[in-house]
Amino acid sequence: MRFVFYGKRLLSFAASIFILSVLVFCIARLAPGDPLASYYGARVERMSGQEREMAMERLGLNEPLAVQYGKWLERAVQGDFGISYKYKQDVLEVIGARVGNTLLLGGLGFVCLFWLSLLLGIFCAYCAHGLLDRIICTLGTAVSVIPEFWLSLLLIYIFSVTLRLLPGSGAYTLGGGGGFSDRLWHLILPLCAVILGHLWYYAYLVRNRLIEEMRADYVLLARAKGLKRRSVLFGHCLKNVLPTYLGIMAISVPHVLGGTYIVETVFSYPGIGTLAYESARYKDYNLLMVLALLSGIIVIFSSRLGQAIGERFDPRIRSRDRQEPDRG
Amino acid sequence: MNERLRLEHLTVTFDDGAHGIPVINDVSLSLSDGETLALVGESGCGKSMLCRSVMKLLPPAARITSGSIYVNGADITRFGEEKMRRLRGSVVSMVFQDPMTALNPALTVGAQIGEAVRLHERGLSKRDVHARVCELMELVGIADAKSRKELYPYHFSGGMRQRAVLAIALAARPQILLADEMTSALDVTVQAEMLALLRRLQKSQGMAILFVTHDLRVAAQMAKKVAVMHAGAIAECGRVEEIFETPRHPYTKKLLAATPERLKKKEPTASGGEALLELSHLTKRFSAGKTTCVRAVDDVSLVIRKGELFGLVGESGSGKSTLARLIMNVYRPDEGDVRYEGRSVFKRGGTHAEKKRLQALRQLIFQDSASSLNQRMKVKDIIAEPMRLHHVTTKRGDPYAEAAFQLKYVGLSDDYMERYPAKLSGGQRQRVAIARALSMEPQLLVADEPFASLDVMTQAALAELFMHLQKEHGFTFLLIAHDLAMVRLLCDRVGVMYEGRLVEVAKTGDLFAAPKHPYTKRLLDAMPKPW
Q1: Closest residue, chain B, to A237 (C-alpha)
Q2: Which of A211, A214, A221 to mutate to test the interface with B (most CBs of B within 10 A)?
Q3: Which residues contact B313 (CB under 8 A, 6 or more apart)?
Q4: Which among B98, B106, B168 has CB closest to A225?
């Protein structure tokens, strides 16, 4: 049983990735633009028709779309994803060099986001409808409607250009450093942009679910026992809200990742986001394919994780499976 | 006897913008050690608010505006939150109405009881708490406490959950127990057990109990003193015999007249009509888990005759609703057949039109009218929808005119046509559900617990409506109910269901006079007796 179950899951996963790869492949090639430009740079403009033909043939771009895809797939299955037109390097190497930066920004951003949202949500729920709660709600909504790129620009303008407190671009000081503290120093502003862009969305969710939970009947019983309001909030309500929160946070990994991509681009932060943006812009097909598939895998994986968390931790979902059918 | 609780001219108001609405109006009561005071009244009369004001756990909009509440002689209306918190659970405890939602689904039952134990007794070791939890669970009649305390509330039945809630309330040996409709959501048999348990506990612990209920018969069983509450005020307060035999307040008189025992019994319909509905060896299984399966309905055979009012009783989980759904062709049976006028309702094949007609002839009225009516539809659309679906050519012009007629017929004026279900009371919603069923001019009405969750007076009005409808139209009724008194009042014949099987079928008079099956006997014994 178990084996069949996981087999099915794996099959559907593979099918999703396959469909995604076909779509990205086709759309990338149908979009206007010149892939040769990314390989040959400015030289393209001086090429004769014949030279172009030869160049296209060398990169395998003159064949029909289906054949191109077939060849790509054949090599990809063997682990060869081709070279990046722009960097003239193996695609995986190009990504490998930068994936650490993104993981640092995205991962750290996600962890901070997770805890800050939770704490802020709990705090707002605790003083619900009070002055502080209302101020935070208004402020939070205002910040959350600012698009990420604009928020990033704002942060750069205030803290980097005007106050000259923090670096506004890159991952480390050029020509020197590259040390850990230097990297962290460069990480502060992009990290703030990633967190601020999403914080209120999740904090508000926690706040509202908690307030809703505080109206449940069992809260009255818990209060009637003689528990403090705070103890009920932490000891009783939070336990019922956490599974939902964990599930939603898992599903929103790609959401946060998408935000990271945008922030990276604005901050010229050498991560996967900048790379994805460039590869799409310059028709760096091979690079684009791998990045798109990587993002796809993360999306599918995290939504599966979210589902699994929901099923595992929510006693109400568990109970639905175990309870006898309604015979009332 | 020590006086434990005294309310003096208590008034609680609900802030509604500019002006406050009093929900409790000048109430004075007193309660002593070892005494039970029953507080009776219909829903919305302020019974729960009264309990919650004694705990000072009122909803944010409600405020105690005047009067005082003395607990052991101290006026708690002056108490701050911290002082109040120490009082809750240890001196005053409360048990709530709905056991399904009163426990936290994410914590084990033992943890929730243990929390109450630890709160008021500092410095207990883990083992002491465990021992005390087991002791409490056994006290309220949960056997095998050691393993049961590790279970989550969803493993427990309604009665068991209510026992757990009671264990929490008793954890710190309170002197005053507020029982807010604690048996209303339970089966008759479980209710009888709970009431006996509560009486036993009171005797051994000497608590003062404020027993809130809407059921006069239960009140009479539990208490020597009764207070009747109406619209936030105490209408009448006195000894049980006084109140029930010589009521003085007009509201008390009305309330008493509405109990099923005092309503005029339906004259029996001429029996021996031809069979309308035949169930033969009907079985429906549900799988529970991977290996086990539950026979919700197990080999039920039954004939319902034309024009008959047939009652089906049994505790929750006995398969009554499943049977109703099988008759309505909502579920398909695993075995057996339902024949309506000799035709099988499950027959595959046959023309679409015929099937539709067959379906229209049988109509179902649900238990919970709050969720069986679409909240986003107006009353007129709710009633007219089945007519539209079946393309019925209505006698009174368009479907809306027909809807207005049916609405008037069940006792609601035209004004209700434009309203939404949320703006109606429980009784009015149930009437709308009946009007919707009637609009199809059915021959068979299946009513699944239509009286549950309604007030005594609303129940009485609805029962009269059923009797009237049946007399005028000669419908055949299948009435599913757990209230035996109501079934006795309305039905010609009664079937008793137990664990999916139909254990006894008899004429109403015969069944109540001489029950044959042991379960029927138990059920009748558990029935709250009229005083």
Answers
A1: B104
A2: A221
A3: B320, B480, B481, B482, B484, B487, B494, B495, B496, B497, B523
A4: B168
Radius of gyration over every alpha carbon of chain B, rounded to an integer in angstroms? 25
Task: Collapse the DSSP code of B375 into the 3-class scheme (helix H, G, I; strand E, B; otherwise coil) and give the result.
Answer: coil
Nearest to B85 among A226, A325, A328 (CB): A226
CB B104 to CB A240 under 8 A?
yes
- The domains found in chain A, sorted by start residue, are 2-77 (no CATH), 91-314 (1.10.3720.10)
In 3-state terms, what secondary structure has residue A281? Answer: helix
CB A264 within 8 A of CB A105: yes
Per-residue pLDDT of chain A (328 residues; tens, 9 = 90+): 678 878 888 898 889 889 999 998 888 888 777 777 777 777 777 777 788 788 777 777 778 888 888 888 888 888 888 888 888 888 888 888 888 888 888 889 999 999 999 999 999 999 888 899 999 999 999 988 888 888 889 988 988 888 888 887 777 776 666 677 888 888 888 899 889 888 999 999 999 999 999 988 899 999 999 899 899 999 899 988 988 898 889 888 888 888 888 888 888 888 888 888 888 888 888 888 898 888 888 888 888 888 788 777 765 555 444 443 333 3
Contacts of A224 in chain B (CB under 8 A): 55, 57, 88-89, 93-94, 96, 169
**Per the CB < 8 Å rule, is B103 touching A218?**
yes
Helix (H) or strand (E) holding B313: strand B309-313
